[in-house]
Specification:
The complex is a heterodimer.
Chain A: H1 7-40, H2 44-60, E1 64-71, E2 77-85, E3 91-94, H3 96-104, E4 109-115, E5 120-129, E6 134-139, E7 158-164, E8 172-181, E9 190-193, E10 204-206, E11 212-219, E12 227-231, H4 232-244, H5 252-271, E13 277-280, E14 283-286, E15 294-299, E16 308-315, E17 331-339, H6 345-357, E18 372-380, E19 383-393, E20 401-409, E21 415-426, H7 428-440, E22 443-444
Antiparallel strand pairs in A: 1-2, 1-4, 2-3, 3-6, 4-5, 5-6, 7-8, 7-10, 8-9, 9-12, 10-11, 11-12, 13-14, 14-22, 15-16, 16-17, 17-21, 18-19, 19-20, 20-21
Chain B: E1 3-10, E2 16-24, E3 28-34, E4 41-42, E5 53-58, E6 63-67, E7 74-76, E8 79-81, E9 87-88, E10 94-97, E11 100-106, H1 119-149, H2 153-186, H3 191-219, H4 227-247, H5 252-276, H6 282-285, E12 302-303, H7 304-310, H8 314-328
Parallel strand pairs in B: 3-4
Antiparallel strand pairs in B: 1-2, 1-11, 3-5, 5-6, 6-9, 7-8, 7-10, 10-11
Helix pairs in contact in B: 1-2, 1-3, 2-3, 2-4, 3-4, 4-5
Classes of the chains: A alpha+beta, B alpha+beta.
Chain lengths: ~450, ~350
Amino acid sequence: MSRAGPPGRAVVRGIAVLLLGVTCSAAQTRLPTDETDAVSQPVPSAASASITARLILDRVRPSVIQIKGFFGTNTAEAFHGSGFAVTDRGVFITNWHVVSDVVLYPEKYRLEYRTAAGKTGRVSVRAIDIRHDLALVDAEGFAPPPLRLRPNAAIGGERAYSVGFPLDVGLTITEGISNGRVEDSFEPRVHYSGALNAGMSGGPGLDGAGHVIGVNVAGYRASQLVSFLVPAEHAVRLLVDAKKLALDVKKARDEVARQVRAHSDALLAALGPKLPTQNHHGYELPSKPAAFVECRAAGDPAPDKPISVERVACDAKSAIYLGRNLQPGGLSFQHELLSTRTLDPWRFAHGMQAAKGSDDVFASPRHLAPFACKQKNVELGGFTANTTICLRAYRKLDGIYDLYVRVVSRNGSRQGFLSSLIVTGVTPERGLAFAQTYLDAMQWKP
Amino acid sequence: MEAVMIVEVLSGHHRVRARHRFAAAGEVACCTVGRSVACDVVLDDPYVAAVHARITVDAEGHVTVTDLESVNGIEVGGLRRHGGEPAELDGGGVFRVGRSRLRVRTAREAVAPERADRSERWSRGAERNALAAGVVVSIAVTAFQVWTTTTQPRELSTALVTTLLALLGLAGLWIALWALASRVAFGESRWLRHATIVALAYAASTVMGGFLSVVNGSLGLHLPSAVEPVLFGITVAVALSAHLVNASPMRARFALALGVTIPAVIIAAVMWTQARGQNRSPSYVADRDHVVPPALVMRRGVSLERFTTEVTDLRPRADAKRAFVEREDPSPDDEDETD
């Protein structure tokens, strides 16, 4: 009974489908008029591009599948994404985040595919590459010709296309421009200036010849046409590794934890053994440690504030998606610099104490155990600072932890800083070593 | 030999409302109790008969009470009696007629020795001084706290006035309630006593709180997080016991027990709830160090090398916390706003 669902909702859905159908057909009918306009106002490349898009779509159509996830025995889907064939024996590539629920909760979720022609069947996960957000899956009883991968090929300015099943409206191609490799990203990404919508994840990003230059992975919801592809060479590498490394469903969590650890190790290694610093009001504090770390600074421009505050926040934007409220592999730190010209030391100290209370780290109790902490006054480079180091374990993933460090300067009666660092999904040894690196960089150099 | 007795009419709070003395040169003295003007002891109690009971005392001081065929009878030693048989009164000498309570005192009664009165000599003076000291310290500490949290002169004056007024209002209400209780229990308000208790308790708790945070900041003492609430609870317990002793007829031992139990239960419940709560932010879990001006920092910190070797025990501690939540809280719900 409950499966049938309330009739009201079914009607609403019917209307929604109708509306979508209308908008789609309207778009299709309007297209030729656009082209005649284009002819009268000469913009020739648009016409040729859409022919290319049509050719590419025809070519890749047989090889692209929609991957659907179901919760329990429900026949209504829980989520969906896209995938495409990479071997002629029914092996497809998709995004890790499309299949993550099935890998982490195999007893709760199952996967199915649906081809553009409507054929359906079971899907099982063969290998995962969490760091690059890729997964290899087997589609039972479906082995179309594979698409050709073109590694190391993202050239800025090249026309590019992306194919997938956005928002459940059927196989779709979008057209845009490849802007080449993203310079400032820890994860290798191709910047695709074209539309990528929910449901296209795992679909192919293609060049004008129909060769795969990347795998659709993400778009910024608030921005327009800023989308990203995972470069094709990572798909090639996963394909090679999958031959020797099949994913054991029972030990999937261990494999996920291992890959998160490897990711964090690589991230911290990329930052090097010593952090660069910048002087703020006499304090040398860690500054942008690598090109992929994004730093922002801001302050209150009102000049007469009794305590003036400056904030610098840096984020490596390296977190990887494991599920809702569970995105380890990130690194961020921030400094809050306080100074006063008018206040006495006592009230300035109180202002620092108050600022301390506003900086907090919360987390999902489902995924993370509580912090274990140690707080002490520590002699850093030329000044005393109250230092707290905390570690918390992941509840369902062995061997990975979150590190939290907070430093409150204790030497200045008219200036001081609060600094906090959080590194998620890291081994304790690596995390604590990085905490030392972070603290080592701080110096008092008025 | 003379037979003497004093019949006292008691109020609901065991206060004497009327006192009658009966003496007879012979063996026995007696009196009648009732609503009628013919009685020796007249009661305005609708549950009392016109002539309700007779009280007799002999020369040895033995008292008997006899019901004179009333409807409601008399109640002696918790037993209701009707007619005929005279009932002997025990040492306390209290019995009930209708809804009134009477006490009979005789020559047999042992009289407690005279108590020396010291109140005039030092107690009241000392109490006044204590009250003044408590008020001055409370106002000074509160004013200092207000000054600490404000940065602008205008903000300071506003906060000072509103805080002190609020404090004064609350303290006044609190004192008035206890004074009312005292008045009900003892017939005197004991304003001074209750005001002194409040002033001293408030002064003690604010001074202690400030002292703890400064000592903590300047010496880097990691006092357990329970220290402050426990000390606060002790102050409240002392104050509450003192209030109860002065505002209820209960014995000092009971007042102390109640005064300790109430804050202990409340503070234990609050601490238990907080410990069970899901607040897992490091500043809540671990931050016990207050920021004080550098001039007050008395102790040098440890070296970074030493600190980094000390934190290696964080891994087993984090693992223990994980094992604990897995056992105690295997499947908690996530709130939507968490991250």
